[in-house]
Amino acid sequence: MQSILYLVIPCYNEQEVLPETARRLTCKLGEMIAAGSISPKSRVLLVDDGSKDDTWALIAKLHTDNPLFSGLKLAHNQGHQNALLAGLMTARTCADMVISMDADLQDDINVIDRFVQEYYAGSDIVYGVRSSRASDTVFKRTTALGYYRFLKWMGVEIVENHADYRLMSRRALDALSQYQEVNLFLRGIVPLIGFRMSIVTYERSERFAGESKYPLKKMLAFAIDGITSFSVKPIRLVTTLGAIIFAVSLLELFYLLLLKLFGYTVTGWTTLMGSIWALGGIQLLCLGVIGEYIGKIYKEVKRRPRYVIDQLENDTTTEV
Ligand code: UDP
Ligand code: MG
Predict the structure, then answer these.
(1) I need a surface site. Which of 56, 226, 248, 300 has the fewest CB within 10 A?
(2) Atom 24, ligand 1: which residue's CA is nearest?
């Protein structure tokens, strides 16, 4: 018997791309079902992350026209990672394997066959890794590379050049459901799960239509989350910095005493001003780093739900 595949696609204001995405996925999954590689009960689960445009109306229509499409509507915008998690957690109850991808057709859907092959070959997690970053701007390419290096240095285990295009088996999703953190950074959590994994490389293309839903500000916040949710090294660096500055201040004290001894007491105004500003700046910076973690703890202890489901349209019985 073939396994049931669910594709989980978070959508936030994606009315421009959805019709085309749906058309291509209907063909793709139709072919795979006809070839017998996946079950006719496989579905595309479109998660509406509190969109302000007609995304949900489009999803509802897709669902009534074709049982291949299921829809999950979140009560309000929760962000890409939470929307993805909502979809994954919903899909795991009826699927054997789930693939997560973006709505904008940047991830090559022809790779789905290879994901599924790897699953049948025994992998629980299959990572989609971009083979090149030709479609990115020079700015994004260099910052991304620097970021991966930095994460590694911070001791965060992460698959380089992998975004959220991946397959997970039901077993892996069950394990993921036990990670209860509110500060979600799925790329960092999934490698922690373990199980047998494999990698499939693909060419990532440009967004098909519409604008990126990740402006620079959101991207930066996401990047900082990736570090502070997985590593306490920044706090340790603060301690090291404190120790170094203390050592330097001892030397400085020795020098000042010498100056006093030889009667040069009025000099040192520049040093004084310099140290006030430098130390003040460093202290604020360190407070900020520690504050970042306290903010995280604050969010975690409240244990607020990571998403709230408004509506689910999923026809699990019909075969397509
Ligand atoms: N997305 C979402 N909620 C948000 C922001 C984005 O569900 O608050 C979805 C979006 O619809 C898309 C995916 O996350 O399917 C990735 O976003 P996008 O393609 O805009 O990011 P980029 O590829 O530019 O990094
Ligand atoms: Mg995109």
Answers:
(1) 248
(2) 212
